[in-house]
Amino acid sequence: MEKVVVVGGGQAGLSVVSKLRSLGFPGIITMICGEPELPYQRPPLSKKYLTGEMEKDRLYLRQQSYYTENAINLILGTRCEEVDSKSSSVKANGQTISYNHLVLATGSHPAKLPARLGGDLDGLYYIRNLADIEVLKPEIDNNRKVLVVGGGFIGLETASALISKGLHVTIVEAADRIMQRVVAPETSTYFRNLHKDKGARLLEGVGLQQLMGEKRVDKAVLSNNEVLDVDFVIVGIGVHPEDSLAREAGLEVSNGIRVNKKGQTSHPNIWAAGDCTSFPWEDTFIRLESVQNAIDQSETVASNIMGAEKDYEFVPWFWTDQYEAKLQISGLGTGYTKIITRPGNLENSVSYWYMRGDDLIAVDAINDSRSYMVGKRLLKQGIDVDPEALENPQTDLKRLLKR
Ligand SMILES: Cc1cc2nc3c(=O)[nH]c(=O)nc-3n(C[C@H](O)[C@H](O)[C@H](O)COP(=O)(O)OP(=O)(O)OC[C@H]3O[C@@H](n4cnc5c(N)ncnc54)[C@H](O)[C@@H]3O)c2cc1C
């Protein structure tokens, strides 16, 4: 009987195994999960789960009964230590497990603040795993002072959750503006104003010089020499792909595990999906950290294990919730030449359309799901957009969908 082993029990790992079973894969499926939890969704960790508005049980992608009914051997709380591609087997907790197909869905891990900056002090928190939130929760109390290092999605979502719990929040972002890596200045400005209106102190172009304290952090020196009193610190300075197993197994690795359009690594029986991969996009390789990518890439891999010979074709999408604002992004804005702004129908709603020449390449829709849906369909169906019509606020967006 065919055997599939999946390493990693996150969104990507779960999506591979559920797609395999829904396609009728009859063989043995084993999932090796480093965390002691059933596979769960991460987005609420910096949003409603952090504020206490969501129960732990709702985080789980499937309940235990699903794995039992679908004959998925879950090995929880166990890290895979080695991949031996010659004998087609992996080692985990002293056990050797053989496979016909191996899927690496190992995700990513937070970049750590170096010890020379005070990264080894107590009172520092990262937001990646459920366990990270459990240790952070006791720190969350009215009027406490928190420094958030990093104005990317995770830092900003966490800041908004902590403001809503009555904490005093300072955010420092070393780059010129928040979310610089992903969005245009227009979107950064919208969220800068929002954070300031809600009472966060947001410093852009200001980094961290040093965290200080005996054993536990109590002060932070910023790059502008300002000294802050802090009760604790959240570090959100990006993630690294978890590609060490692949590297040690001799697979091609470059900013993540290299895969082709089918999701196959440099070894034909080893596949990879999700945050850990670097995959072809236009004329380069990219890595995405999003739920959409984890699901769609995994489903492509599962189909290809079943012999489909399918390429990973997709329009990237992503969302972030900060206070009452929902930003939905469709497409990738890299290399845009112009932004078209369209006010939305509701107060505080707006969309920014990224053009490269006359081509639409992405849209950021804030509290404007209509623009998001239309933008996503335009991108998916490759429909040419008349920039003048898009620019005209009187144009009914749905008309743009007609070729
Ligand atoms: C706080 C937070 C908020 C987010 N919000 C959003 C959002 O709003 N929208 C969005 O689109 N995306 C969001 N993301 C990103 C999204 O959650 C990730 O892109 C997605 O979880 C990637 O899934 P994955 O399965 O590739 O990786 P992961 O979810 O990281 O899962 C990988 C798993 O593999 C395990 N593992 C690693 N190595 C081994 C090993 N050797 N042996 C066994 N197990 C191993 C890890 O422990 C982990 O459990 C957020 C992420 C975080 C952390």
Quick synopsis:
With 403 residues, the chain is α/β, with parallel strands linked by helices.
Topology:
Elements: E1 3-7, H1 11-22, E2 28-32, H2 48-51, H3 64-69, E3 72-75, E4 80-84, E5 89-92, E6 95-98, E7 101-104, E8 108-110, E9 124-125, H4 130-136, E10 145-149, H5 153-164, E11 168-173, H6 185-197, E12 201-204, E13 208-212, E14 219-222, E15 227-229, E16 232-235, E17 239-241, H7 244-248, E18 257-258, E19 270-272, E20 277-281, E21 284-286, H8 291-305, E22 317-322, E23 325-331, E24 338-343, E25 350-356, E26 359-366, H9 369-381, H10 387-391
Parallel strand pairs: 1-2, 1-7, 2-3, 7-19, 9-16, 10-11, 10-16, 11-12, 18-20
Antiparallel strand pairs: 4-5, 5-6, 8-17, 13-14, 14-15, 20-21, 22-23, 23-26, 24-25, 25-26
Bound molecules: flavin-adenine dinucleotide.
Characteristic terms for this protein:
single chain; 403 residues; alpha/beta; five-stranded parallel sheet; 10 helices; binds flavin-adenine dinucleotide
Which class of secondary structure composition applies to the elements? alpha/beta
Q: Calculate the terminal CA-CA distance, rounded to whole Å.
A: 49 Å
Q: Roughly what fraction of the amino acids lie in strands?
A: 25-35%
Question: What bound compounds does this protein have?
Answer: flavin-adenine dinucleotide
Shape: globular
Distinct helical segment count = 10
Tell me the total number of β-strands.
26
**Helix amount:** 10-25%
Sheet with most strands: strand arrangement:
3-2-1-7-19
Average pLDDT taken over every residue: 97
Largest sheet: 5 strands, parallel
Radius of gyration: 22 Å
Low-pLDDT parts are none
